[in-house]
Amino acid sequence: MATPHIDAERGDFADIVLMPGDPLRARYIAETFLDEVRQVNRVRSMSGYTGRYKGREISVMGHGMGIPSVSIYAKELITEYDVGTLIRVGSCGAVRDDVAVRDVVIGLGACTDSGVNRTRFGGMDFAATADFALTRALADAADDLGVTTKIGNLFSADLFYDPRPETAELLRRYGIVGVEMEAAGLYGVAAEFGARAATVCTVSDHILRGDSLDSTARERSFDDMIRIALDAVLRDDAAREVTP
């Protein structure tokens, strides 16, 4: 049944969905990496697709920018379309000295200045963490592909343009591996509704050093990250003995 934000029918989505922020990147992933692709969502131009990767049915759909947007789509995919696993695939900024542009970071947890998880968790602090098996599968897939990764806490910011200049230095001191805008919300939704979630991001810029990737390098690094996510799905299936 369609929702206010998704016009697919039940069964149109696979049990696992890769979610970039940009719906055009969802289309790119579907057209570049998947076979037998069909479009399953068009509402608000938040494109969603289902296809096959090495025979395994996988869906991909954009989630927009920020915790409110990703929370809407993740909740509806889980509760209305029986999606059990969501992997955010996106970009982030770096603050740590040992994290560089083009590195891939995996969000074991996600701090945030958003209040959504406190609202969700009765006013208490909620430790927003990824599914361990998915995180391990992402790390192992990256190792096999020879891609450098850093694993640790992300910071999901409510503000892209943060007026507090001291924030980045504080995040560096606490060892944050990447600054983005969605993971903490995704992990909270997954916990509330009994799904599994993980996040893998390419470092597109270093906030403190001012380094950044040009558009060509961004796309090349993005492709590496998508291969990691897709291969991780197959590893996770094998570990859980899931039949595609």
Automatic annotation (TrEMBL):
Glycosyltransferase as a keyword of this entry, yes or no, is yes
State the organism named in the record. Halomonas gemina
Residues engaged in binding a purine D-ribonucleoside: H5, E180, M181, E182, S204, D205
- For this entry, the protein name equals Purine nucleoside phosphorylase DeoD-type
The job of this chain, per UniProt, is described as: Catalyzes the reversible phosphorolytic breakdown of the N-glycosidic bond in the beta-(deoxy)ribonucleoside molecules, with the formation of the corresponding free purine bases and pentose-1-phosphate.
Per the UniProt entry, the Enzyme Commission number(s) are 2.4.2.1
Instruction: List the InterPro entries.
Output: DeoD-type, Nucleoside_phosphorylase_CS, Nucleoside_phosphorylase_d, Nucleoside_phosphorylase_sf
- Residues crossing the lipid bilayer are none
Could you tell me what reaction this enzyme catalyses? a purine 2'-deoxy-D-ribonucleoside + phosphate = a purine nucleobase + 2-deoxy-alpha-D-ribose 1-phosphate; a purine D-ribonucleoside + phosphate = a purine nucleobase + alpha-D-ribose 1-phosphate; uridine + phosphate = alpha-D-ribose 1-phosphate + uracil
